[in-house]
Structures are given as C-alpha cells and as structure tokens.
Amino acid sequence: MKDKLIVALDVETPGKALELAKQLHDIAGMFKVGSQLFTSAGPQIVKDIIALNSKVFLDLKFHDIPHQVAGAARAAAELGVSLFTVHASGGAEMMQRAVDAVSQKGETKVLAITVLTSIDATILSEIGVTSSPDDSVLRLAKLAEAAGVDGVVASPQEIESIRRTAPNLLIVTPGIRPSTSRSEDQKRIATPAAAIAAGASYLVVGRPITGAANPLEAAREIVAEMASNMNRSEERN
Ligand code: C5P
Predict the structure, then answer these.
(1) How many Å lie between the centroid of ligand 1 and the Cα of residue 89?
(2) Distance 129 CA to ligand 1 centre (A)
C-alpha cells in the first residue's frame, strides 16, 4: 500500500525536502517534486531523492509546442523520474510526442492534467471554454487516453467518472485528508480510504504529512487508512 502514497515535497529548501525524503522513504513509495522545489533546487534534488532508492513524480505540468514538450519529456526520463505531467489542453499531438519521447526509457510514465481544481466554470468561460468543468475533465481524459498517456491527475470527485470514461488510465489523486483531520472544504477532499475505494491508483498528500509535528507517524496513519479499505477495493493498476 505504501507504493500508492506519494508525498508532495512542497517545501522551500532542498535541505528540508531531502530531510523529509530521508525520514519518509520507507513509508512512501514516491515523492512529488513540483514547480516551487524544482525552480529553487533544480534537477539535483531529483537525483538526490532517487539516490535514496526512492521514486520521483516530477509535477511541472509541461504545456508548450510539441517539440519543446518532447525535449522536456526526454530530459525527465533521462533524469530517472517515474511520473511527470503535461497539460492535456496542449492537445493530442503534444501529448503523443511526450509519450513517444519516453517510450524507449521504459520506466517513465506520462500523466495528463485535465482541468485544475482551481478552475471553475467562470474561469473556463474567461478563456473561451463553454463546456462545464466536469465535461471538460472527461473530454480531456478521453483525449489523453487516445494520445497514449499512462494516466491523469484527478480530484477525488472525478475518480469514478474518469474510471468509467477512460478505464485504462492510472489516476493520481490529490486533495486527500485523513479522517482525523479537520477539513475546511468537504466538497473537494476525500479520506485516503475513500479515494482508494473510488479507484485512485496513487494518492498525493502534502501538508497533512509535511506539516505534521511527526511526519513519519502521520504518513503511517495515512497508509493504514488506505489499507483499511483494500478489502472493499480491488488492486487496479
Ligand atoms: O493539500 P496538499 O498539501 O496535500 O497538496 C498536495 C499536492 O496536491 C500539492 O502539491 C498540490 O499541487 C496538489 N493539489 C492539487 N489540487 C488541490 C490541492 C492540492 O492538485 N485541490
């Protein structure tokens, strides 16, 4: 079950990130390096995490002309990351080029971002998209599947409809809060057990672990909560 836990290292310094990775690498299967950490620490932080015998999810959300994204995908694969993200709204060709660029590297998988959870119907209409956020998510998930990507990043609320629409995709789910933590926004979050039961392949958890007084204990509790639902949910992916 620990293989399904990705800890988001959204911290300010590479020292803090590495300290957390060292503390947690026995309990978490992967660490997410996002824009903040990568921009301040560079590719060395990815190498340092991999050197701990851990895996890296590089969440830089590439969105550019296909040639650029193919080059970034190749660089990510050469760095040894296990997962990285591209925006599905970059189009099928852009996604296919990313998939082609990593196909010889074996271990690296491509994830597509559909619609960010910060984007609502008003923002979509501002940028000229008239379909609803839910319809846009499913349309982009189908496009991503057809382009050959391995998976999508999806909120807990989107897991089941994406499973129905694009059943072959891995689903990586943020917005996880343990049952013991208080939540300010019940609509956008799920417990670890509920997300696994809904069909998430991986859970991305940041602050409930990295902001805890005892990150190792917090991670252990989340893995235990994930496992508590495994008898109701079959291992998918
Ligand atoms: O909230 P938390 O610290 O657990 O977030 C972990 C990761 O999930 C963050 O790195 C963020 O990029 C992602 N996230 C997201 N959508 C949300 C909340 C968080 O993609 N609504």
Answers:
(1) 20
(2) 24
